Amino acid sequence: MFVLLSMIISLAILGLMFFYAKQRESSAQRKYDLIVDLRELLVLCRQHRSATHHVLMFDEDRHLELNELQQALMNQSQHLIGIAHFDNKPMYRILQRKLDSLTSDWQERSIARNQIVHGKAIRHCMFLLDEVMLAWLVESGREELSDEYHINWQQIIDAMDALTQLRICIEDLDSAEGRRRFAHYVDTVQRKINQLSIISALTIASPGCTHALEVLSDWEKDQTISLSTQELYAISSTLSLTIAHVYDHMLSELLETLYQPLPKLLIA
Description:
This protein is mainly α. The chain folds into two domains: 30-140; 142-268, Four Helix Bundle (Hemerythrin (Met), subunit A) (Up-down Bundle). It is built from nine helices and no strands. The protein has helices at 2-58, 63-83, 89-104, 111-140, 143-169, 176-195, 201-204, 207-221, 229-258. Helix 4 (111-140) runs antiparallel to helix 5 (143-169) and helix 6 runs antiparallel to helix 8. The protein starts with a helix and ends in a 10-residue tail after the last helix. The mean pLDDT is 89. It comes from Vibrio porteresiae DSM 19223. This is Nitrate/nitrite sensing protein domain-containing protein.
């Protein structure tokens, strides 16, 4: 009788362990799927920003590309609403409204305004990613990873904010005040991006990033150097892509530690 009771208790314990293991696996898979989908939406936002910038700056015909991007953005945001936890669905619906605004009236915006509107949507995606990552780190009990992630996250956001301000200043370079503000953000961007080498040294040392920083450094030393609006936006786009690569590198390393590697992704 005692042996039978012991076996029943052991089986019950094993059953509970299996049940909780399955729950943890299901929760991890749900968070992983959210991160993968938000990551893809982030790339779509960047691609839409790039395409609309080119239309506004160079009057390029990107009608078909923009239609495809708009449909992809709507499909991806609707999918995210469907898989998000019930309590979090309002945040994803707010994101969808931002994407609706982002894709509907961009032709009427200035380049600076277009930068701001896209930046808000991109940051919303990143804050949703941050929410998922923080919850996962807390559940996993990895305090050391959580502290490192928080520091790296803040450095990336600071670099993005500085670059956004730099881009906004480009249109005002004809005025003395505009050049003063631009010079200030040139210095800030250089410092903030160099700090990201702690997260991904190879990304910051890439030829594109190195050249972009060198051009800004040369201009800072000699502000009589003539750089066209197109050249400055190209430089800022290179640095924006660099920050995106650093952010993706951080996410990939964390996910590989917590669960499994992220799929390869073309960042544009």
